[in-house]
Specification:
Blueprint (H helix, E strand, L loop, with lengths): L8 H10 L22 E4 L2 E3 L15 E4 L3 E3 L3 H7 L2 H8 L4 E3 L2 H8 L5 E3 L19 E4 L9 H4 L3 E3 L9 H18 L2 E4 L2 H10 L3 E6 L14 E4 L10 H14 L10 H19 L1
Amino acid sequence: MTYSNSGNLGDHIQTLATLQYINAECGIERDILSLYNGEKVALLMQGWFGNCKKFPNMFPPSDKIFPIFVGFHISNTQEDRAFYAQNHIVNYLKKFEPIGCRDIDTMLFLKQFGINTYFSRCLTTTFPTRTVIPNKEKIFIVDCISDDLIPADILNKAERLTHFVSENESEIEKVKKANNLLKKYKEEATLVITSRLHCASPCIAMGVPVIFIEDKKDIRFTAISDLIEVHHVNRFLFRFKILKPIQKIYAYFFKKRVDWNPSVKNIDNTKQEIIKNVKQKIKDLIK
């Protein structure tokens, strides 16, 4: 899929993950899948699906698209969940069972409507493990909730990166930037501190030590929460400058409980299960 309306390079990192398993010369725009009218194609439905009010033509896909549901995530806003609970959406999903879900919450949400689902995780967890470990320390802080949550000695020597880009940039440029980020993590990182799922997930896959800091209410992170420790914080607390004194106290105790020198997690078995699953899905389609 392509994401011309997205300013989050995490979407394009997911595209790069799917391209490990398919040959594709062009993509189909996620936000208008129901309007697609080209030749009949199969499409890996890996990614985030939501904001149905802004993107009313996102789902269900056109009948010219045969969907392969792996890594499927549905936004958990009340409006989006009501949209996906409609009978015609439920009946559509049942035609393509089982639905591979990126997170536990999406899986359980669909199950309540009698849809056959399973936990497929995310294909960004299958990037190859790096074979060369950098010998020079390089710490990256990537869109972390707050600097206050990070010890000063780490903060002062770290390099900041972001997955935010302008929505107006071309798809080619976004994919290029996403590819460059992955290359940087793989070749240079000795530690990554982030609040971005699609920074943490590929880094875990590549064998990069990760400290993942996020709000405990965010349901998306069950995609990786059994692979590494998710350090939960109250994101809402850090939105307001007036709460700075409380933030400082909160951050002091938070920093005390985090292991700032995490080990690399071996997820080879999990990775092979995901790869086997997606390859089988594609074989089933060919049959």
